[in-house]
């Protein structure tokens, strides 16, 4: 042991001898744990199962919000807009996701009001069972997703799943509807993104051509085109147009 280690050991020993035990407070006591096995209590077991189901639903709630609402289209369009402006990380991801969330709440409010009136409130008042409430809550969600889903995408997943062609839109299962809805949303978002890209792409092409003709090949075109992009976006009130177009696309 080196000299520093010896000094540390001596100092700790001195503190343990000099400082009284009461100065460290009351001694820490470990609580006892007892396990007992008794008769089966079906009511407690049922409550435990319901609690486990509730916790499971809460864990998949972000996926439900992302894939069964308007969030996917909105966040993809806003991300493509940021790339079209060439502003790198401005607006930051927190702002884009926050705006997408609040726009999702705004768009999905009528659907959630139907779910509350047709499923949650009757269930809270013990007028319907849990299974009936789940079936009633799925109808408004299905109606919203079916309005935004292309028949081609829906037919693809029905064929892959080997299901029969549904006679009514209400007969489509959620396991088939959700992936079809997601790829339809992605296609729509990329179509909107392409339209957003066009004016900024023209600005980039004009600036690059001017710099090339002037022989300024070492100057990055983005440094010159970025102010013009921002000026154009502000003059046409771009946020108003983009957000309004995205919201209107769900009607």
Q: What general outline do the C-alpha atoms trace?
A: elongated
Q: Note the gap between the termini.
A: 78 Å
Task: Work out the strand percent.
Answer: under 5%
- Major sheet: none
Could you name the key traits of this structure?
elongated; 251 residues; 0% strand; disordered N terminus; mainly alpha; single chain
What is the fold's blueprint, element by element?
Elements: H1 3-18, H2 42-67, H3 71-85, H4 93-124, H5 130-148, H6 151-161, H7 174-213, H8 221-235, H9 238-248
Molecular structure report:
- The structure is a single chain.
- This protein is mainly α and 251 residues long.
- The chain has helices spanning 3-18, 42-67, 71-85, 93-124, 130-148, 151-161, 174-213, 221-235, 238-248.
- α7 packs across α8 (221-235).
- The relative contact order is 0.09.
What's the short story on this structure?
The chain is mainly α and 251 residues long. Helix content is 74%, strand content 0%.
């Amino acid at each position: 042991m080196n000299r520093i280690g010896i000094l540390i050991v001596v100092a700790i020993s001195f503190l343990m001898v000099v400082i009284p035990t009461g100065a460290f407070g009351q001694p820490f006591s470990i609580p006892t744990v007892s396990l007992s096995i008794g008769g089966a209590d079906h009511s407690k077991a049922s409550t435990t199962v319901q609690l486990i189901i509730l916790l499971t639903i809460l864990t998949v709630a972000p996926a439900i919000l992302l894939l069964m609402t308007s969030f996917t289209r909105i966040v993809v369009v806003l991300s493509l807009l940021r790339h079209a402006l060439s502003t790198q990380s401005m607006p930051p991801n927190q702002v884009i996701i926050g705006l997408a969330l609040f726009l999702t709440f705004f768009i999905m409010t009528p659907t959630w009001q139907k779910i509350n009136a047709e499923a949650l409130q009757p269930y809270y008042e013990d007028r319907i069972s849990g299974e009936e409430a789940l079936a009633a809550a799925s109808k408004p969600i299905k109606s919203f997703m079916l309005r935004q889903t292309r028949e081609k995408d829906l037919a693809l997943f029905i064929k892959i799943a080997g299901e029969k062609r549904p006679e009514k839109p209400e007969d489509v299962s959620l396991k088939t509807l959700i992936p079809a809805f997601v790829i339809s949303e992605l296609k729509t978002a990329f179509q909107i993104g392409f339209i957003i890209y066009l004016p900024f792409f023209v600005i980039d092409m004009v600036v690059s051509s001017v710099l090339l003709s002037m022989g300024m090949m070492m100057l990055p075109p983005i440094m010159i085109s970025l102010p013009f992009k921002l000026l154009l976006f502000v003059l046409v009130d771009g946020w108003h147009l983009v957000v309004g177009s995205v919201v209107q696309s769900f009607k």
